[in-house]
Amino acid sequence: MTSPAPDDAGRNLHPGHATETNHAETNAEVIQVTEADPGFVDLGYARLDTDRLTRTGDPEVVYGAGKTPDQVVDLLRHLHTAHPDRAALATRLDATALDRVRAAFPDARLDEVAGTATLGPPPTPVGLVCVLAAGTSDARVAREAVRTVEAYGAGVRTITDVGVAGVHRLLAAKEEFDDADCLIVVAGMEGALPSVVGGLTGVPLVAVPTSVGYGASFGGLAALLGMLNSCAPGVVVCNIDNGFGAGVFAARVARRAHAGRGSAAAGTPNGAAR
């Protein structure tokens, strides 16, 4: 009978033993994969995406509409635990939710006009976004955009009440927005402001229609269609009242505009490249 060949460690293995060893190694790999961080936290009512910061450079944000105040607090707590060095942002919070967040996190930064809460340190600002609002009635959407830009790591400047009904006010502010890396232009009514701004500057521009206006504005639909039909080139449009979406877009444009110019180019807290 031929003796089994020794392995590298001097052990004698029959063919069957080798098969068992392979199964054991395979099982160990399966266990390792199963026990690895899945990239989310299952809270029962939600699966919080804790891997988004790694994938995109920015953590998940809590959309507060339709959630209970307790859920908002719970989600903010888990986001802050997962990414203690980055701001956790919650949007579309009503007064009850804001009060609950204030009681749970005394250090949170609340904006009652925007309906936002920010917990934890914002990234070091990179680049500049300028938010232009046609009227003071557009303040909630404009401020949501501002708080989002801050949480997403860009500097921000705000210019308010420069609607086309008094276009001289916009022309007087041209120097304030002409040096920005990206513009967010917020307007209701007929939504003409982004077209005018787009004709005055070549700065990348994202327009946000608001639901401000009389009956024929159809809750912002008239402004949305006006912006989509802009004759000024380079105008892109977000959904009605979506200051958050515009803020994300503009902050990423501003950060990318400065990529490679300095250590803080990527918008991460330490400026490391993603």
Automatic annotation (TrEMBL):
<protein>
    <recommendedName>
        <fullName>PurE domain-containing protein</fullName>
    </recommendedName>
</protein>
<dbReference type="InterPro" id="IPR039476">
    <property type="entry name" value="P2CMN_synthase_LarB"/>
</dbReference>
<dbReference type="GO" id="GO:0006189">
    <property type="term" value="P:'de novo' IMP biosynthetic process"/>
</dbReference>
<dbReference type="InterPro" id="IPR000031">
    <property type="entry name" value="PurE_dom"/>
</dbReference>
<dbReference type="GO" id="GO:0016787">
    <property type="term" value="F:hydrolase activity"/>
</dbReference>
<feature type="domain" description="PurE">
    <location>
        <begin position="127"/>
        <end position="259"/>
    </location>
</feature>
<dbReference type="Pfam" id="PF00731">
    <property type="entry name" value="AIRC"/>
</dbReference>
